[in-house]
Amino acid sequence: MCGIIGYIGHRQAAEVLLHGLSQVEYRGYDSAGMAVSNGKDLRILKDQGKLRDIHAKHNFLQLEGGIGLGHTRWATHGPPCERNAHPHYDCSKRVAVVHNGIIENHRALKAELEKKGHKFSSDTDTEIAAHLIEEELKQKKPVDSAVRSALSRLEGTYALGILIAGENRLFLARRHAPLIVGRGKSDEMFFASDIPALLGYTRDFILLNEGDMAQIDSKGVKIWGADGKEASRPPLHVDWTPQMAQKMGHDFFMLKEILEQPITLASALSADVSEGVKLLSGAKRPAIVACGTSYYAALVMQYLLHKQKREAGAYLGSEYASWHTGQEDVVVAISQSGETADTLSAIRLAKKEGAAVLAITNVVGSTLSREADATLYIGVGPEVGVVATKTFTGQLAIIYKLAYSLSGDKKGMDALLQSPAMVQKMLDSIRPAVRELAKLMSKRRNFFFISRGIGWPCALEAALKLKEITYLHAEAYAAGELKHGPISMLEDKVPVIAIAPSGALAAKMESNIRECKARGASLVVLSDDETIRKEGEHALVMPKVSEDLVPLFYILPLQLLAYYMTIELGRDPDQPRNLAKSVTVE
Ligand code: M6R
Q1: Same fold across 4-246 and 430-580
Q2: pTM for this model (two decimals)
Q3: Which of 48, 153, 194, 536 is 20 to 30 A distant from 4 in Cα terms?
């Protein structure tokens, strides 16, 4: 969702903001802008479109001064256009505001402000904040009290950055939306919605609590807690390097992130999962909550726990409130970003009902990790492509390690620890065949993915990957479900991609493949078994792996297939339309 960066220091703010915003482009956005002050005057440049195009048109670097705010907008209130892009001014053009989140009482506040004579120039909820501050400043209060009073009127979620003309400081505040403060080396301070925005400048951060407001000047930070009292917050040092967020010679981050999975998998497998084992071993009614790709990882976890005869329900974060029993004692929340609003709502409800929360996330200091009782970090480094690839396999790695540690399955653990080397070998050997297949498949418009058992979440994830970046229609089914309805759509060489490993479910899978062929479908079969592969019009040779590890291995060629098809179609796999890297609204 919206990306935010703020800077105050000895450099030209516009340079820092431009670089920082380019590092958070992966969050997904439709417009961008910045406000810069030289300590006295304040100017804003903003527009709809991609950052580089806006820069080419307006030249952000013409904004002179060492204090500034930058923003990439993912539209919620009002269409993407210049007037709705952030920052937003008040009437006097002395207050500039950037925002991520939704101000829920914006209608009532707007009506109140309009009665007082305020004129609004956008359709956004954000602009309210600038006018509220303007109104408070008219009361001649100290500036920080004026900002605090204005913010106390806001309901909903926000990460806010505020720049006021004539002030040698910036204000920021957060409630249920991520915002971190960065400490520069000498006489400079930052804030941002994401750590990667600031990695080029600092790896030392301060995490704000929910409801905190802060001010930064070039020397440091002053924080007020939700109770209005001054507060201190712990520092955080991260070991991510700026290089980890570079393309490293690849055309797109997505390809780099797919191909680095042997390394990221090994890194995830080195995690200490003992905290998770401690929580789950005593759990009577565990639940797993997650959204999107992370939900498919949750389904894999549910499968593994059921195999151990542990009752565990996997829930979509957005549906947890409707489907939970209220008896859950441990809730495992899986989220690469740790900021997904639906997942956070689910854990807040679970906590209220007395459950302990175990987080599995990639982002140190994320809201999820801070609200959970224990966190297992997948440690795969920043994932810049909007769609999840290496974070999915990182989540699976932690889930397998946790499951095998719980059950003491030594054989399973040994096979798991060998997986990074096997994944490397497989990626090397399978890539050319996937590329060729992508050329053929990119001419088709509808796709079905089928599998059984633990392969089914993998089919769901493969279909999600394909539709997210190619914008083609793709559906995934448990293979046995086809005959209950969707089989009526199979005609005219519709591709059906079958995840069909050898093993206990192979015979039934083979029958399902034949059912599809008999209706004219074009089968793409992924299997380690030659006999099953022969059923396909096209086939990909897979290594033989244990049943549990099927999702971990079989998703890799399907990530590559989605990627290469997107390239064939001339689309951007890193920043697909309408998608955001972390979804901070419900
Ligand atoms: O950060 P999270 O793992 O909580 O994100 C959940 C989903 O929004 C995410 O997996 C989404 O489905 C991605 N676009 C998948 O590629």
Answers
A1: no
A2: 0.77
A3: 153
